[in-house]
Amino acid sequence: MGFGDNPLNGVLPDSIGNLSTSLEQFYLDHCEIRGQIPLGIGNLSNLFILSLHGNELTGSVPRTLCNLHNLQILGLDDNRLSGPLPECLCKLPVLGEVDLSYNQISGQIPDCIGNITSLRVIYLNSNRLTNIPMSLWSLKDLLKLDLSNNSLVGSLPPDFGNLNHIILIDLSRNHLSGSIPSMVGDLQSLIYLSLAYNELQGSIPESLGKMISLESANLSNNILSGTIPKLLESLRYLKDFNVSFNRLEGEIPSKGPFLNFTSQSFMGNEELCGNLLFRPCMTRSFHQSRRSKLLLIILVPLVASLMALASIVVFMLRRSGNRNVPTQAKSLPARTTLSRISYIEVERATQGFDQCNLLGSGGYGSVYKGIFANGMVWAIKVFNLQIEGAFKSFDSECEVLRNLRHRNLTKVITSCTNLDFKALLLEYMPNGSLEQWLHSDGYFLNMIQRLDIMIDVASALEYLHHGYATVVVHSDLKPSNVLLDERLIGHVSDFGLAKLLGEGESIAHTRTLATMGYIAPEYGTVGLVSRRCDVYSYGIMVMETFTRKRPYDEMFKENLSMRSWVYNSLRAAPEEIIDVTLMEPEEIDFQKKLLCVSSILELALHCTTETPNERLNMKEVLANIKKIKLEFLRK
Known about the structure:
Layout: E1 25-27, E2 34-36, E3 49-51, E4 56-58, E5 73-75, E6 82-83, E7 97-99, E8 104-107, E9 121-123, E10 128-129, E11 144-146, E12 153-155, E13 168-170, E14 175-177, E15 192-194, E16 216-218, E17 225-226, E18 240-242, E19 247-251, E20 271-273, H1 290-319, H2 343-349, E21 358-362, E22 365-371, E23 377-383, H3 390-401, E24 412-417, E25 422-427, H4 434-439, H5 447-466, E26 471-473, E27 482-484, E28 490-492, E29 499-501, E30 507-509, H6 521-526, E31 528-530, H7 531-547, H8 562-572, H9 590-607, H10 618-634
Parallel strand pairs: 1-3, 2-4, 3-5, 5-7, 6-8, 7-9, 8-10, 9-11, 11-13, 12-14, 13-15, 15-16, 16-18, 17-19, 19-20
Antiparallel strand pairs: 21-22, 22-23, 23-25, 24-25, 26-29, 27-28, 30-31
Helix pairs in contact: 5-7, 5-10, 7-9, 8-9, 9-10
């Protein structure tokens, strides 16, 4: 029975269990169904396919589904289901495919999952699951496993290599640590592997080069070190490879599939060399023979003498006041730049700055999507030099981003500049801004996604304030300056108003240029800028994220502000100020959500006190919001 793609716009009655027990297939995909899955559905004992994906179902996965002993395919993905996974699902003898992705299911994956030997496909991605049971690795006939975008912790065991027939593994965007086990090379059938956005350490196993079927491997945004194994050159089917933003070093392989990979696959690894767009590698062949050693003994003193002579000549020239030698123009450092980009290339990439490629506009210019001749896609921030302060904004972004490197900061790739044109080429963020996801029709972020983005922003600010030699104050933090990548990971952008505080300096005086509603009182009145100003802006943005009210909404006037509204309501009726799309009273975890958001808004109030010294610092903020998330996942 199928009613898919019909706007039924209602709830499933419990009487659904009175349908014929001979029913074998039940499809209600994309039918605008809300409410809970009725318990009576467990009476349809001969069902072998149950598909309810793409609705607005809430509540938990009912235990009565465990009565469907003939069930082979269970599709409840893309709903708002919550609570834990019922352990009794492990008793379904012929279950082959489970898709519960894009829900809010929390807790642990049952240890008994290894008993379902019939399983071939597991999609549990984009939930709030916290563990990978050891028994899962015993499912030797599993074909696809997607646990990405959860809160998984722990390490990958050697048993990782037991999945003999697996073709897809995606464990990205979790909190996995430890090293990649060398047994990964035993996955001879694997086509797609993603371990990106975790906390994996150690080296890339040489055994990866044995995975003869591999077409896509993404190990980016971890803490991997060592070299890229040359054995990977033998992977004839490898089409996509990404190890960007790790701590890799040495020469990038240059043969086989590596002939086709762009620098985007390797960026953010300062010590890598080779590849047309990276610095050349230093050869060490002179260490490999006696003749070379003899030459070394002769050449070192000779070179030293020449360097000494050159130093004397330079010293004499400087003393003579020679000013005829042109100085090299400032540029972004080699580690964040690609080959020089010309104005013609930028113009072509944006189709003549066509409006169809316009991503957004700001105070000092516009941002375009640019597709270059080599297939690279970048965001191009073009500064309007007719606006006062545009030159300073460009210089400020270059200065701030020259040496900063953090997974939650938008990365500057290179710049294009001449007397009449200035632009920055930035990492392209396909999911737009947080502003868009909060305030545009057709967009929705669930509780855990909003929490994760706030943690991403707090991590970036903690790095800017406390993790770098020079204190960096962003000065214009707001949802439109938080960009989201393909995994909805938050990246703080737009450093045109940023301030660098020197050693021992805690505040600076400046003109107020930031966006009204987000600026701290001391910044708006007398132009005092400090780290506490960013903390204030962060607190306001947290309130906006969980209430979906802008701080300059027309309701906030005279004596009512965003902060006073939250402060007064949080103690009396918190459910009345929280975004209604997050909270549905009939949900079984309504109180748990209410407590979580209340804790988040309390934290936001501590960030937005009138007196700067009473505000938390970003180290404290980050620790607190991570604790709130863990508490939410535990309950």
